[in-house]
Amino acid sequence: MKLWLQNILACPICKSHPLQLIVLKWGETDSSSVGELKKIFLSDVKKKIISPSSIQSIIVLDEDELLNQKVEKLKALFKEFILDYEPEILIKKLGSEMEFIIDVMYRININTGLLKCVECKRWYPIGSSIEGVPEMLPDNLRDKIKDKKFLNLWFDKLPDDLKKDMRLEC
User: Fold this and answer.
1) CB under 8 Å to 146, separation ≥6 — which residues?
2) Quick check: pTM over 0.70?
3) Which of 43, 45, 94, 132 has its CA 20 to 30 A from that of 140?
4) CA–CA distance, 170 with 145 (Å, rounded to integer)
5) Percent of the chain, pLDDT > 90?
């Protein structure tokens, strides 16, 4: 999963947006050209697909310090645009940082993680069945055994406040 995808995902149960993204394991980066990705980014900004509030809700638990720093910088760049933004103003303000933003949002893969709804407290695994793929199924369609395995594997890495807040029954 790429970070930009979090901008458009909503909870399938309560329709809340944005979902909190908890990154547990990063993967390889995409080798697409910056020019190609810049067109996509500018189009996403103009259509207001980019959600600064989604970017603020990212939590990184992976031990790769460089990637963690990149996400923190990304959050700082978008902080002032949380409530609303005019696409032209956002593009102008982010001008010199555009390549960096594209690198983080469109190139880096999230292999394993969680998407958590802050409203209904449900969580959705990323990479439980297929590396990098979020599984956003309603409760009645989820594989409870697989969900428990996933949680057991990563539970110790999750912060206590997140564990307390999550709906852990699948």
Assistant:
1) 128, 129
2) yes
3) 132
4) 9
5) 61
